[in-house]
Amino acid sequence: MTQEITARLIDQNLKTSTTESEFSDPSWRDAYSDRDLGWLQFNSRVLHEALDQRNPALERVKFLAIFTSNLDEFFMKRIGLLRTRSQAERLKNRVIGPVPIQQRLHEMRQVIIPMLEKRGRCFRRDLKPLLAEHNIHLLDWDQLTDTQREKANLFFNRNVYPALTPLALDPGHPFPYMSNLSTSLGFVLRVPDSEENLFARVKVPNILPQWIQLDPEVDDARNYIRLADLIHYNAEKLFPGMSIIDSTLFRITRNSEVEIEDDDESESIRTIVAEELRQRKFEPVVRLELSENPNPWVRSLLMHQFDLSEDDVYEVPGELDYAGMWPLASLDIKDLRDETWNPIVPPDLAGEEADIFSVIKSGDFLVHHPYESFDASVEQFIRAAANDPKVVAIKMTVYRVGDDTPFVRSLIRAAETGKQVACLIELKARFDEERNLHWAKELEKIGAHVVYGVLGLKTHTKIALVVRQESDGIRCYAHIGTGNYHVKTARLYTDLGLFTCEPTLTTDVVNLFHALTGRSREPSFQKLLVAPTNMREQFLAKIRREIEFQKEGKPGLIIVKVNQLEDPEMCQAIIAASQAGVRVECIVRGFSCLRAGVPGLTENVTIRSIIGRFLEHSRIYYFQAGAEDPLDGEFYIGSADWMQRNLSNRVEAVTPIDLRAHRERLWEILDVLIKDRRQSWVMLPDGNYEQLLATDEDDDISRLGTHRTLMLLTQQRMKERIK
C-alpha cells in the first residue's frame, strides 16, 4: 500500500474527531472540548469508582480492571491512530522533528500519568489493606511463610514451568515477537565470569490466573501470589548455569487501527477483514509499560527494539496489569459485592404458556435491561421464532454477539427447519472481527443468507424482524433496540428495546433490511430515523423546531441521552438552541466535545455523566415540541450516538415511541437520571466535571442514585402488575 493511500485512509478515519475549524462561527470555539482529553476525563470518572469508599471492596477492584481495559483500548485505537497520523504528516510534508500531533500526544501523557499514580495508590494503600481485613491477602514473595513458598514452588514445577518458553536474544536468536497486551519478564543474564549482558524474555502465560491462590493456612483465609513473582523467583530453573543479574516486568500495547484498502471489488469483505486481523498482530508498539524502577539496560534495549520515544514509555506504580484482576473482582463474597440483581421477567412473558407474539400483537411492548430480563424478552423473541412453524423468515443485524451466543444457535435451528434466515453481520466491529467471522461461517454452512452490509458503512443498528404466516395473512414483528444482541453485556449495560407489529413501523424495518441485503439507492422510511439516510436532517429539524416554539413563547426542551456527543453540526444546533433560550439536558456517559454553561453560548445546556454498577448504554432523545404536557412531546430510542461516524458513516435506526405508557416509562428514566446526586457528574464551563453529592434534604432518588432507584421502581412495578 502506498504512503498516499495510507495517509488518505488515516484522514478519513480522523473525520470522527471534531476540530475547531469545523464550527461555522469562530465565536463558538470557547464551547469546544478536545475529544481525546474528554475521553480521558471519562475514564478518570471510572477510576473514581475504585477510589469511592461507598462502593464495596471487590466492586472497587472491578473498576480498577475496567479503567485499565478502557485505557488499553484508548492506546490501541486513538493513540495508535494519532501516532500513525503524525508519521504520515512528516512523510507528506517532509518535516524533520516534532509535528503538532506530537504535542497533543504529550499533553495526553501529562493527563495519564497522574491517573496511573492515583490507581497505584488506590491499590496499595486502600484496597490491599481493605481486602486483608476480609481475609483476602495479596502477598509479595517475602511475605510468604516457608510452607507457602514450598507449595508455590511445587505449583510452579507442575503447572507453570511446562507452559513457559524462555527466549534469548543473540546472533542466533532474533528479537522475539511479542503479542499485543502481553506481559513479560525481561531478564538480564550473564555467563559466569563474564561482564557482558544478555537479554532473555519470558512471557507470563495468560492461560493461567495472574494471581495464584495458595492453600490457606488459616481457616477462611484466601492467600494469593502473583504469577509473575512465581516465575521471577523460580528463574534459575529456566536458565541453568547462567547468572541472573536482574529482571524487569514489562507489557506492550500495539496499534489496532490497521486499514486495508478495500476498493478492489474482487476481494470479499471476509478476505479483507481476515487480512486486517493478521496484520494487526504485527502493528507497531505504541506503549511500553514497565514495573517501577526497571533495569536501565532492559529499558533502553526495549525502547530501541520497538522504536519508541520517552513519551511512549510508562513506569507504572503498583501493579502492571489490573485487567488480570477480574478473577479476584469476581469472587463470590456477598459482603464485598454489590447486592445481587436478577433481572425481572415481565409478567406478560412469564410462564411456559406465555406467547411473545400474542403479547406484541396486543400492543407495542417496551423492555428496559438489565432491570427486565433480556433472556425472557429479546432472546425469547428469536428463540420462539426459530421454533414456531408459522414463522417463514427471520432477519437480524449482528454487531457484537459474544462467544456462546444463543441467537446464532436459534438462527441455525431456524435455517435447518427450512425457514428463510438473513443475518447481517458487521465484520468490522472493533475487536469482535474474529468472533463475527466465525459466526458468519457457521451460518453460511447451514444455508443462511449472510451479508456484510453496505460498502463503506458500518452496520451498527440493532434490529430484528420476524415474518409470520397467520390466519389473516402475513404479519411482521420487529425488535428495535439500543444495545447489542449479547447475553453477557445485557446484564451489565442499560439498554431499551421496543417490540412492535405496527404495520407502518414494521414496513420501515422491512425496507431497511431490503436496503441492507439488496440494492436500494433511496430507501424511504415513514417513521424510522435511519442514518445516513434521514436521521441527521430529522434531528436538526426537530432542534430548529424547538427554537421556533421557544420564540413563540411555548415550552422548549431537548433531552438527549447518548454515549458520546461529538458531531460538529449537532453541537452547533445545540448552541443555537441554547442561545435562543431552549433548555438542553444532555446525559452523556463518555466524552462530550461540547462544553456546557459557557456564557453567551451554552448557558442553557447541562451535560451530566452517570457512572455506576451498570454501563449507561441506552440512547433516548426527547423534544417537547411546544406541548404543555411533557408526555405529549416526542420520544425516540435507538442505536445512534450524536457522533459524526454514527450519523454519517454508519447504518443506524431510531424509532419513535408512541404509546403514552411507554412515554411515561422513558420520562421516568430521564427524570431519575437528571435527579441523581449519587452517581452523577456535571460538566463545568471549563470542560471539567464535578461530582454531585446528595444532602439530607434530597429525596430518595437523588440519594440512592440511578441504578438503585430503577431496580426498586422495576420491582415495585412488577408487584403492582402481578396484583
TrEMBL record:
Residues 148-326 form the Polyphosphate kinase middle domain. CDD domains: PLDc_PaPPK1_C1_like, PLDc_PaPPK1_C2_like. ATP binds at residues 70, 493, 589, 617. Residues 355-521, 528-696 form the Polyphosphate kinase C-terminal domain. One of its GO terms (biological process) is polyphosphate biosynthetic process. It comes from the Bacteria. Pfam families: PP_kinase, PP_kinase_C, PP_kinase_C_1, PP_kinase_N. An intermediate of this reaction is the autophosphorylated ppk in which a phosphate is covalently linked to a histidine residue through a N-P bond. Its cofactor is Mg(2+). Mg(2+) binds at residues 400, 430. InterPro entries: PP_kinase, PP_kinase_C_1, PP_kinase_middle, PP_kinase_middle_dom_sf, PPK_C_dom2, PPK_N_dom, PPK_N_dom_sf. It catalyses: [phosphate](n) + ATP = [phosphate](n+1) + ADP. Gene3D superfamilies: Endonuclease Chain A, Polyphosphate kinase middle domain, Polyphosphate kinase N-terminal domain. The keyword Disulfide bond does not apply. GO terms for cellular component: polyphosphate kinase complex. Belongs to the polyphosphate kinase 1 (PPK1) family. Catalyzes the reversible transfer of the terminal phosphate of ATP to form a long-chain polyphosphate (polyP). This is Polyphosphate kinase. It comes from Blastopirellula marina.
